[in-house]
């Protein structure tokens, strides 16, 4: 290992252009980005301290600080208080991996596409309710939190998910990502901390980075977040909130037991946390379990959306909030989107009040059951949590595997998968893991084809030594 004149170890020195066309800090950002793309800087790599790099390059300390800050905003690096700056878990991976490739021959096991094969069936149900639409109501502005009629129907419908809430406590948003944005913008400030599972929803990770809200990972086991670890994290980090997916956690598929829910509720109460419980995938759980929010209704925001349960086209999400927060959230919603579309809200409301919503859910659960059974048959021999009706599955691989490399190798074979690195909060996950969305392929046959390709890839996998140049 090379040492600088002060005895600091130098593991990496960027080559920054000296043409003077762009400011030095931008050139340094570019150099970091380039070295990530080339595989020279790997995820989890500890970047040189700013002072050391500044000395090495003969540039100002402030220039390096500025460049690191921009890299952090771009999601390329991650600063961990007291530990340093690390290359982020999934830097530089093409965002196109997350897009819908239905116009190509690629089979997607990537994004959790909610069973498009159900769309023709959903279409017939939508046609049934269109005649009952209250156009007078839906073609005008409404209060930011939504029409009371829609909130009332939603409150009744939420009972099915074991969530008891008054209509006045429901706020209608344009999807769960929108609900989370409203919550973070309204109730959190820059520098506030939110506790999350070590693997969590990518949309929250990027939103928190955007809002400069700090996500604090808490380790867990195959039953979810560890209670003792959570308690000590609360003591150490003084978080303001906690974000949990109690049913089919994305990406791990863990469904919290009743005992774990109660224990989490107790910690939430004791530490005065605000719970954000994301129930996006609760629809696919065959036997519904009482959410944590039902134990701590005064400290929770239960968020349930329709884009996976029905279709992204009818994208509504309900926040069940305590009375103390309804006004603040409605005000925030008003500032951000004014209101969710009353037209979409009316369609969803009609599906809920006529029982058609449940029929869609039942059909999806049955399809997911068949798809997951095939998954279990094909993926024998790998460490996968049981998740009989989940939209995706989480595979923990032996340490000799490289999950990011597997993403690329799978793409080469025409299948899109996700390295669970993308969901990781922290510098580098301990084990390689991948998430395969069983709900994404258009048909069962397509799913089987894709799974067989992945099974063969995993069975015959040898880490390519040349994939990442050794530092
Ligand atoms: C856990 C989780 N929450 C929220 C969302 C986004 O939902 P919506 O489409 O309602 O914004 C997703 C999308 O995949 C998700 O996985």
From TrEMBL:
Keywords: Aminotransferase, DNA-binding, Pyridoxal phosphate, Transcription, Transcription regulation, Transferase. InterPro entries: Aminotransferase_I/II_large (IPR004839), HTH_trans_reg/aminotransferase (IPR051446), PyrdxlP-dep_Trfase (IPR015424), PyrdxlP-dep_Trfase_major (IPR015421), PyrdxlP-dep_Trfase_small (IPR015422), Tscrpt_reg_HTH_GntR (IPR000524), WH-like_DNA-bd_sf (IPR036388), WH_DNA-bd_sf (IPR036390). It holds the Pfam family GntR. Transmembrane segments: none annotated. Gene3D superfamilies: Aspartate Aminotransferase, domain 1, Type I PLP-dependent aspartate aminotransferase-like (Major domain), Winged helix-like DNA-binding domain superfamily/Winged helix DNA-binding domain. It comes from the Bacteria. The keyword Magnesium does not apply. Its EC number is 2.6.1.39. Residues 22-90 form the HTH gntR-type domain. SMART domains: HTH_GNTR. One of its GO terms (molecular function) is pyridoxal phosphate binding. In the C-terminal section; belongs to the class-I pyridoxal-phosphate-dependent aminotransferase family. This is 2-aminoadipate transaminase. It comes from Ruminiclostridium hungatei (Clostridium hungatei).
């Amino acid at each position: 290992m090379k040492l600088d004149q002060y005895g600091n170890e130098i593991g990496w020195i960027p080559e920054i252009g000296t043409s003077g066309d762009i400011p030095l800090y931008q050139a340094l950002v570019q150099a970091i980005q380039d070295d990530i793309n080339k595989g020279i800087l790997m995820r989890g790599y500890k970047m040189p301290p700013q002072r050391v790099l500044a000395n090495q390059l003969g540039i100002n300390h402030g220039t390096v600080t500025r460049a690191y800050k921009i890299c952090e905003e771009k999601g390329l690096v991650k600063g961990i208080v007291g530990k340093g700056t690390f290359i982020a878990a999934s830097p530089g991976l093409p965002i196109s991996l997350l897009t819908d490739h239905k116009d190509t021959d690629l089979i997607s096991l990537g994004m959790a596409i909610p069973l498009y094969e159900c769309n023709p069936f959903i279409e017939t149900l939508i046609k049934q309710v269109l005649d009952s639409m209250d156009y007078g109501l839906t073609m005008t502005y409404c209060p930011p939190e939504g029409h009371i009629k829609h909130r009332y129907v939603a409150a009744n419908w939420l009972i099915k998910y074991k969530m008891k809430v008054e209509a006045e406590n429901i706020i209608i948003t344009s999807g769960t990502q929108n609900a989370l944005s409203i919550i973070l913008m309204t109730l959190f400030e820059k520098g506030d901390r939110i506790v999350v599972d070590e693997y969590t929803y990518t949309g929250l990770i990027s939103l928190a980075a955007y809002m400069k809200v700090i996500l604090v990972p808490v380790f867990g086991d195959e039953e979810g977040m560890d209670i003792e670890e959570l308690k000590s994290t609360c003591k150490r980090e003084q978080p303001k909130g906690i974000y949990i997916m109690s049913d089919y956690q994305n990406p791990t598929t863990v469904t919290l037991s009743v005992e774990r829910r109660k224990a989490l509720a107790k910690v939430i109460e004791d530490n005065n946390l605000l719970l954000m419980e994301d129930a996006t995938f609760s629809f696919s759980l065959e036997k519904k379990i009482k959410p944590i929010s039902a134990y701590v209704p005064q400290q929770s925001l239960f968020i349930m959306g329709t884009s996976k349960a029905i279709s992204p086209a009818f994208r509504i999400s309900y926040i069940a909030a305590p009375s103390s927060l309804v006004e603040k959230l409605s005000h925030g919603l008003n500032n951000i989107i004014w209101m969710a579309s009353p037209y979409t809200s009316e369609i969803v409301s009609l599906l809920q009040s006529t029982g058609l919503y449940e029929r869609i859910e039942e059909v999806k659960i049955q399809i997911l059951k068949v798809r997951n059974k095939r998954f279990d048959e094909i993926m024998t021999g790998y460490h996968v949590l049981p998740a009989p009706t989940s939209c995706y599955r989480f595979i923990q691989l032996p340490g000799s595997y490289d999950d990011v490399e597997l993403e690329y190798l799978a793409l080469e074979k025409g299948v899109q998968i996700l390295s669970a690195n993308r969901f990781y909060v922290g510098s580098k996950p301990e084990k390689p893991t991948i998430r395969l969305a069983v709900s994404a392929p258009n048909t069962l046959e397509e799913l089987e084809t894709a799974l067989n390709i992945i099974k063969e890839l995993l069975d015959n996998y040898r880490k390519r030594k040349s994939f990442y140049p050794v530092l």
